[in-house]
Amino acid sequence: QVQLVESGGGLVQAGGSLRLSCATSGTRFTQYHMGWYRQAPGKQRELVAQVPYMEATYYADSVKGRFTITRDNAKDTIDLHMNILKPQDTAVYYCNARHSRDYTRDFWGQGTQVTVTV
Length: 118
Description:
Layout: E1 3-7, E2 10-13, E3 18-25, E4 32-39, E5 46-51, E6 58-59, E7 67-72, E8 77-82, E9 91-99, E10 106-108, E11 112-117
Parallel strand pairs: 2-11
Antiparallel strand pairs: 1-3, 3-8, 4-5, 4-9, 5-6, 7-8, 9-10, 9-11
């Protein structure tokens, strides 16, 4: 059974930092695009950052220069280092893994809450 488990969310003041981690199990994710999405209340889920298979790393414009995504292919883990956090970063953050050639193989974590206070 494929599982993605996020950790590291929490409450932080604006300007602070958090690191989210995503541990995986159940398959190898070598040929998967792996990334982080977020969903704020009343808004659609959006892609924050992604390390695709054989493609360039992607960052949403809203997080460029503040967030860094790292992927460990040996461990099939993916982290999101978030700096200079802003209240508008408040959301539930989800880890995602999607096969690069078969998009039906699309897996999600349960989500972790990040709350940034002023």
